[in-house]
Amino acid sequence: MIVMGKMNSSAIGEEFELRTKFVIESLLENSELKLKVEGKSEFWIVPKDSHTFHHKKYKYCYGDKTMQDFYYKDKNKDFAIRGIVPHNDFNWPPFDYFRLGHAMNVSNVYEDLLKVKCPIHIPQNTIRRFCLEKVDEMIKEKLESSTPNPKIHELLANDTLTKKEQEKLLEGITLSATDLLWLNKESQDMGYLLDVYHEEKYPDKFKEKQHPACFRKKDNGDVETVGKTDMTDGEMRAMLEQRKVVQARIYHKGSTWHCFYFTFKGLYGLECGKLGSQPHYHYLSDKNGISWDELTDRIKKCDMPSSKVHIIINKD
Questions:
Q1: Cα 148 to Cα 182: distance, rounded to the nearest angstrom
Q2: Given a cut of 60, is residue 113 above it in pLDDT?
Q3: What is the pLDDT of residues 216-269, one digit of tens each?
Q4: d(CA 126, CA 105)
Q5: How far is Cα 215 from Cα 225, in angstroms, rounded to an integer?
Q6: Is 24 or 214 the better-scoring residue by pLDDT?
Q7: Number of neighbouring beta carbons within 10 Å of residue 29
Q8: pLDDT at 178 over 60
Q9: In the prediction, which pLDDT does 45 show?
Q10: What pLDDT is stored for residue 232 in this prediction?
Q11: pLDDT category, 27, cuts 50, 70, 90?
């Protein structure tokens, strides 16, 4: 059972919303249901053991903050750092998630260029709609000139495959950027939703240090920082190299799920073994005998179960 409701702070007031939330949670306390709040004005009553929820229709061309970016510029240095803020997203249509996220990245760069090149102010929404149209055109051309990877198609379409059959199907597989595009397109067409996790764990010995707002290690080993810090370059390099990072993409539909995950070491081909020396993803599924709760708990702890499957990623 899934029940949906609406709350409107502008018409009724935030105090009423809080009371409503408290009353509903009290009523559900000893039941098999729980309250899930979406944004500022929508709530869902869903089973406690459910991890698949209804997804909203998004009002804006880029959805409800598909991704958040950051832009750090040091006033005293002639450089800036821009990127995506690591965070978790749940129950997204997979294809839309990546096309909207890519369009956002493109529009940020394009917007910066227009500020320098164009004397006329162009509204941000106009720029974003334009970039989304161009991204959709590019994606359409890619899909029309290619076909889905048959092994990934079989993996998504056939939920009767055993763990051994899945491992055999993926043995020695290499995926291109176009294959990953098709993975998201087909999974959405088949009714899957996507959960995206980014988790990091840093060594405890650096907890008491003042971290800079942002820093990066250059190819030559030098460290660039933005903001104040009491850390040495060596400490910052050590923190980057010794941290644990897990990024997971879980495609789920009912009780069926496929988890593709990678560590930063794995993505850069720095893990042990022949396959570990190439950029790769790992793979787990509901057929591995792992519950959904255990999977998400292991992701959050950056302590993933072992996986025999290495999916080589062709970055060209």
A1: 5
A2: yes
A3: 888 888 888 877 889 999 999 998 888 888 999 999 999 999 999 988 777 766
A4: 15
A5: 4
A6: 214
A7: 9
A8: yes
A9: 54
A10: 92
A11: low
b/e sequence 117-154, b meaning 16+ C-beta within 10 Å: eeeeeeeeeebbbbbbeebeeebeeeeeeeebbebbbe
SS3 per-residue string spanning 187-256 = HHHCCCEEEEEEEEECCHHHCCCCCCCEEEECCCCCEEEECCCCCCHHHHHHHHHHCEEEEEEEEEECCE
